[in-house]
Design a protein that fits this description.
With 205 residues, this protein is mostly helical. It has one domain. It is 80% helix and 0% strand. The chain has 7 helices and no strands. It has helices at 3-30, 34-59, 63-85, 98-120, 122-140, 144-163, 171-196.
């Protein structure tokens, strides 16, 4: 396979990965159970890794490969497993706001595509749409699992925006965000889990 053909495949993979991330972000606005949310977080991590690998090929840089590996390891494996472990202290959300949030997410995503795509292209427009969907979930979801997922989606959208810029050279900072923000998002439910742990016999409460 020629290098020119691989370049075309990589360029096509960027908007494809962004579209997949946006669909998953909107689906998370409708999802209430922790298990499916964890699965969608992992699938979005795979899409983000695809975008990072595509940009790494186009730039000829190993840093994008490192970001892709971190995204898969942290958000594709560790975070979903953490969400499932924390399921007992992550109450599932109600359905009253789900449809309204999803409709708002679709509206904001459409607005981002219409306004940003003609100016900056579909890659940044899709990234902005993912950020807005994550912001909706983080700000308006009342369940902890939805809020954690919203923070992760928002951060994924920011990373997607950065890796979509052909001349961006700040991959080490992206890698740090890929590690730090998921840990920050999971810290409150971890504290809740530790607080809810039964006190051992003889242990001073």
């Amino acid at each position: 396979m020629s290098a020119a053909l691989l370049d075309e495949v990589a360029r096509g993979a960027l908007p494809l990965a962004g579209a997949g991330m946006l669909v998953l972000a909107l689906a998370m606005l409708l999802t209430r159970r922790v298990g499916p949310i964890g699965t969608m977080v992992a699938a979005q991590a795979a899409c983000l890794a695809l975008a990072a690998l595509a940009q790494a090929w186009l730039q000829g840089s190993w840093q994008g490969v490192a970001v892709a590996g971190l995204a898969l390891a942290v958000k594709g494996v560790a975070v979903p497993r953490g969400l499932r472990m924390l399921a007992p202290v992550l109450p599932e959300g109600g359905s009253s706001l789900a449809v309204g949030l999803a409709a708002s997410g679709v509206g904001l995503a459409g607005l981002a595509l219409v306004v940003v795509a003609p100016v900056a292209g579909f890659g940044p427009a899709l990234a902005l749409a993912v950020v807005l969907a994550g912001w909706l979930a983080a700000a308006l979801r009342r369940d902890a699992a939805g809020q954690v997922a919203g923070v992760l989606v928002l951060e994924n959208g920011l990373v997607l925006a950065l890796v979509s810029v052909p001349v961006f050279t700040g991959m080490p900072a992206v890698a740090l965000a890929t590690l730090a923000l998921p840990a920050a998002a999971l810290l409150p439910p971890v504290r809740r889990l530790l607080a809810a742990r039964p006190t051992a016999v003889g242990e001073v409460p």
